[in-house]
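Morning run. Coffee first, then this:
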Amino acid sequence: MAAGPGLVNVANVLTVLRIVLVPAFVACLAAGGTGWRVTAFVLFWIASVTDFLDGWLARQRGLVTDFGKVADPIADKALTGAALITLSVMHELSWWVTAVILVREVGVTLLRFAVIKRGVIAASRGGKLKTLLQILAISLYVLPGPFGVARPIVMGLAVAVTLVTGADYVLRAARLRRAPAAP
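And here it is:
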């Protein structure tokens, strides 16, 4: 039987890098001032790109590991959650927006773990759109500049797609729970 990929591989390193970038991003965002906001924006985008890149590399190069399956969604939630919470603490984003998104994110993650013995709930196109909209919306809030009208519009779209895709994940999980357990 062939051994699986090692724990230390490029996909897992990118996931860990995303986790490490979270406190640096929060520190820069909280520091205030245009330079720190731009630095926070750059760190947020570097971390966001690793989110797309690590999964792609893992699938393309056969580097999928149990560590990556667990750490990747945790890294995603840590980045998004830290951004939303920090923006809410700074009174730049309503707490209800942060609460709705975080409850959905944690709920879907728990659902995925609850049905993992029956199968994997893969990310849907809607889930990928949700991630992209959240990244764009958070970016508009982080980056200094005249984005007044665009910020709530893009965040509103992100919240709407977040809720719709959350409902879709609940339906998919319910179907998996009714299916026989995978061997």
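The CA atoms of residues 26 and 103 lie 20 Å apart. Good start to the day.
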